[in-house]
Amino acid sequence: MIRIFEVLVALVIVFLLAVVVGVLLPDHGHIERSVEVSSPVRQVYDSVNTFRRYPQWSALRVFDPNVQMKLEGPEAGQGAKVSWTSQSEKVGNGSLEILSTEPDSKVVIGIDNHWTGTDKTYTVSLVPSANGKTLRIKVAYDVKYGWNLLWRYAGLYINGDPAATIQTSLNSLSAMLAGFPNTDYKDQQIAIVDVAARPVFLVNTKAKRTLDDVAEATSTAMSQIEAAMKKAGLTAAGPRMTITTNWGEEDYTFSIAVPVSATTFTLDKQDYTIETPTPSPSDTGDEEEQPAEAPATGSKDKSGMLVVDANVRAALWYQGKALVTEYTGSPAALPLLRLNQKAYAETHGYRYNESGLGRFWDELTSAPDAAEDQQTFKVYLPIQL
């Protein structure tokens, strides 16, 4: 009996000690992990201020490749949310929601998952290095345990699962950012617009990557288009378009296009309708390549475009969402604008395809004879949200 009493007393003492220790333990938890990247700060901020790319860099998919994720709320910024479900005990079910943001500086994200505690948050801070060449992405995890002593004890292991999840996510984020064009689009105004399909006459061409060579190829293509429009009884119905096929190391492959006044026309007493092109399965995407013999008027080339004459094609051009930016200055800057749009699409999680109707195009919105540094352009990149 005495032995039993001693055991009970020992248990009570251990319990009281556990309570005392629990009371003395912190009522909150805080850890930080970081990674250094060479990406521009705006690229990093845009990547973490939305969950559209989260499935790619999240540690959840590393721990469970079959985790199911769902985006909710606005596309980016405060209120943007991602929820997930998983059969893995390590991942479980949960959600993240952006609570507040400071542009190019900080994003605070609320956490709802199986980790112990309440008021759980990630604070993502972007800290440029002193030399301005790199950027440190720092993620702080904060949680409150209150007077729940079990939670306080669980907080002793905060450097386990929460810390591992944060570091794995940061490593994946760093790898994803390394695959984006390393260009800073911070000062470029980029918007999303709805583009209506337009009938165009176009000529595929190629030139050396100099302004003079591109201008000469453009002038030749415009002469061919204007002659074809006159023959078909059509007139220009919009600004000249330059459609990029390939910006190579030495050569620039592109198309010159002009919107025309109707989707139907008559040529040599035959009626034709301009339609959305459907490429043939054998289309390699090299649109400058021409068959040995000139295709017949009214036939379809390998890109599915209507043949107007040997060099001029007709097509109903792109319809859908596109990124657009406006620019005034020398056309020599257009390749950089296109690169910025690609980087913007990547950080925001917009899909794009630089082939067929998904190619970049520029519209010359100023007068054709405007001074080189006074030319105005609209640059478009078709995207899928």
Characterization of this structure:
- The chain is of the alpha+beta class and 385 residues long.
- The protein has two domains: 26-178, START domain (Alpha-D-Glucose-1,6-Bisphosphate, Chain A, domain 4); 192-382, Regulatory factor, effector binding domain (Multidrug-efflux Transporter 1 Regulator Bmrr, Chain A, Alpha-Beta Barrel), CATH 3.20.80.10.
- It has helices spanning 2-24, 41-48, 54-57, 59-63, 149-154, 161-178, 211-232, 334-348, and strands at 28-37, 68-72, 81-85, 94-102, 106-112, 118-128, 135-144, 191-195, 199-208, 241-247, 251-259, 264-267, 270-273, 306-307, 312-316, 320-328, 361-364, 376-382.
- The strands form three sheets. It has a nine-stranded antiparallel beta sheet.
- A hairpin with a 2-residue loop joins strand 12 (264-267) and strand 13.
- Helix 2 runs parallel beside helix 8.
- The model is unreliable at 287-291 (pLDDT under 50).
Class based on secondary structure composition and strand pairing: alpha+beta
Per CATH, which architecture of the largest domain? Answer: Alpha-Beta Barrel
The CATH class of the largest domain, by name, is Alpha Beta
Beta-strand segment tally: 18
Distance between the termini: 75 Å
Q: Figure out the total of helices.
A: 8
What is the share of helical residues? Answer: 25-40%
Q: Can you write the helix and strand succession as a string?
A: HEHHHEEEEEEHHEEHEEEEEEEHEE
Strand order of the largest sheet: 8-16-18-17-10-11-9-15-14
